[in-house]
Design brief:
This protein is mainly alpha-helical and about 100 residues long. The chain is built from five helices and no strands. It has helices at about 5-20, 30-45, 50-60, 65-85, 90-95. Helix 2 (about 30-45) runs antiparallel to helix 4 and helix 3 crosses helix 4. The radius of gyration is 19 Å and the shape is elongated.
Length: about 100
């Protein structure tokens, strides 16, 4: 593998990471990555009707109830991050750790 090939692969990876949130980046911690995975999973379950129907049959619930439960589970994940950021002092948010 030549140096130019490595540069091309790295630039493609950086482009994908900038374009899609779920691909992550070097500074992403484990919590942010897990939240992205969970959020994407719930959004996929709600957005794909056959998957939603599968969960509804497996849990013996209506499809509407399953959709509601997934959306209800999805929202606290998003709001937890917002609460976490509001609990911090402004100086803690801007602190770079140096």
């Amino acid at each position: 593998m030549q140096a130019s090939d490595r540069f091309n692969i790295n630039s493609q990876l950086e482009h994908l990471q900038a374009k899609y949130v779920g691909t992550g980046h070097a500074d992403m911690n484990r919590f942010e990555w897990a939240v992205n995975i969970q959020r994407d999973s719930y959004a996929s379950y709600v957005g794909h009707y056959p998957m939603l129907a599968y969960f509804a049959v497996a849990e013996n619930e209506s499809i509407g109830r399953e959709r509601y439960n997934f959306i209800k589970c999805f929202c606290p994940v998003v709001f937890h991050l917002r609460e976490k950021m509001t609990e911090l002092e402004p100086t803690e948010i801007l602190d770079t750790g140096s």
